């Protein structure tokens, strides 16, 4: 029996997967999809690039096809770019259903979003801040009947860091029904497990990837110790060497602040490197444009803050450079997860 058939997925979905080159379930899909189809809450902890998104998109689409209505599912995610990426997977996999989705993120027109929400899309993919703003300012839609609540990068949504989502999450959690199915996914769930259990209350099925270190095995990891004064010179040298040695190349450089991100990008542009910046102080249109230019290989270097660290599926990155040491191991895991995705044999410096 075909891998996905064994998991209980319908033939139309399996066919759709095949067209996208998704033929064999990954471990997170193998373990979580049957449990989700059975109606259980689920907490999935798997390394980044392991097919986590499809692990919740596929069973949700199957359930939606059995009883289609809007709003059927709400997906919350910490960054705007991730919201677009998740919506894309819903769109391509749910095409035969005539799926209507709606993306609610900051930096975009609120009136247009309110109009879209009032048209009852099947799936809403949102960042918590903007969705909570809609609840605070209008009552033209409600999510009282949703079947599924998904928290992607769930631990980040619950963290109290520089972007604190807790108040916005509270507004949203008060608006969702108690008898929903809750799905929580991330590469790093364990730190916030207790808080997560208050959201997925329905005896959640917990699945964790067994590999001890949650970075991809094929990733080559190097540490370069240099004096602070010559750090930028080394960076330029490193990029130059990589550029000379490889015909097809792309690099992401992670920085700790928006200011540093901007400065490094300007410096690299001075040296005529094809580089773009991505950070949260840029306008949303500029953020999308930067990401699109990088994804299409027009620009080979993306200088980014951790806004780009989680979940972004950029298939051709060969090198991730941490310009600063990430403060937490899990930030490192998310950052280096941008390379060697889906088993590609790329290295990390
Ligand atoms: P994710 O971990 O959700 O960011 O997925 C990483 C990439 O793997 C995406 O481009 C997916 O389309 C792809 N993918 C998801 N599931 C599979 C699968 N079963 N086989 C091959 N590729 C997959």
UniProtKB/TrEMBL annotation:
Subcellular location: Cytoplasm
GO cellular component: cytosol
Family recorded in the similarity comment: Belongs to the DEAD box helicase family.
Molecular functions (GO terms): ATP binding; hydrolase activity; nucleic acid binding; RNA helicase activity
Matches recorded under CDD domains: DEADc_DDX49, SF2_C_DEAD
Lineage: Eukaryota, Metazoa, Chordata, Craniata, Vertebrata
Keyword Nucleotide-binding set for record: yes
Record key words, sorted: ATP-binding, Helicase, Hydrolase, Nucleotide-binding
Domain Helicase C-terminal per the UniProt entry, residue ranges: 218-349
Organism, as annotated: Hymenochirus boettgeri (Congo dwarf clawed frog)
EC number: 3.6.4.13
Protein name: RNA helicase
